[in-house]
Specification:
It is a single chain. The chain is mainly alpha-helical and 73 residues long. The protein has a domain of 37 residues. The protein contains 3 helices and no strands. Helix 2 packs across helix 3. The longest helix is centred in the last third of the chain and has 22 residues. The relative contact order is 0.12. This is DUF2934 domain-containing protein. It comes from Acidithiobacillus ferrooxidans (Thiobacillus ferrooxidans). InterPro entries: DUF2934.
Length: 73
């Protein structure tokens, strides 16, 4: 590999960084959040919309935690 290629590789960020939480743990967090969203709505409505809202909430929380290097409990 040429020196130029080595320099380019060193400048590129590591795009395969480890996630803050294991995918299975993220799934459990989403499931719990979806339950509480459904509970707030009296268990009326679409389960899929509850799940999608929970995904957004959890992903937002995990992104904020990654930015501050703090993992939520």
């Amino acid at each position: 590999m040429s020196t130029k290629n080595q320099e380019v590789q060193q400048l590129q960020p590591d795009t395969q960084a480890e996630p803050l939480v294991h995918p299975e743990e993220r799934h459990c967090m989403i499931a719990e959040a979806a339950y509480y969203i459904a509970e707030r709505q009296g268990f009326d409505g679409d389960c899929e919309s509850h799940w999608l809202e929970a995904e957004r909430e959890i992903d937002r929380a995990l992104s904020a935690a990654a930015a501050s290097s703090v993992i939520p409990d």
